[in-house]
Amino acid sequence: MPKGKIVKAISGFYYVQYEGGLVQCRGRGIFRQKKITPLVGDYVDFEYRDKREGYILAIEERDNQLTRPPIANVDQAIIVTSVKEPDLSLNLLDKFLVLVESKAIEPLLFFTKMDLLTDQEAVLIKEKLAYYKKIGYTVEFLSTKDKEVNHQLSVYLNNKVSVFAGQSGVGKTSILNRIIPGLQLETDDISESLGRGKHTTRHMELIPFEQGLIADTPGFSALDFKEIDLEELPGCFPEFVNLQDQCKFRGCMHIKEPKCAVKDALDHKEILEDRYKNYLQFVEEIKNRKPRY
Description:
The protein has 293 residues and is α/β, with parallel strands linked by helices.
């Protein structure tokens, strides 16, 4: 029985890549009965009569999965954040990071539109964002007309399954169009009144790039914490994880507990104050969300 990987999903058809080529498949009825939906990125067992009539028989256990976009077994998320138009928002950046960390996906941070800043503004932005590099994240700065983007990205995308994430209007789709000739995803200008772009991507497919695969969607279409429990949140902040064993109480939430190593590091300015404030805001968001049934 052949094994393969779903690289495209559209209208109930799943396109499975295997060593013999590409086969158009449907899912067996058993998946609907069990309320299991095959996802792009899934490793599957399948059978086929010809390249246009195959059936997925089994789905291997997933390392991770995202709901929006619907994709499984992602190695890394390229979080694209603009420094201007729209302006840099550490709150949005940290929200993306929490969502990616909660799925055990490695985040890479790409900051775009650096050429729209003055030299002084660029220095100040880089100084602030140095904190993210300090706590272990990969950080890259890109200009709007940067011709070296292919070279910069290929270093990170080789032999990986990557998904792009970020607020609308920050340049995700433009980057994808630039690095994958012929892709021609739609882009929209930013609405001046709203300060953000419109969502334009409608398609879900893994596109070959170098020796890796890239999801051809700019990523998350919703930013909420519906799938994250309150107790999980501190584990989505790597600088908190590095200090948690030094806290007096196991399971410390780093808010009001005595002898908390995270709050001590905050007092000594070893943790970025804006990021800690975002953490407290996310705690409240999770506490105040409507219960799931």
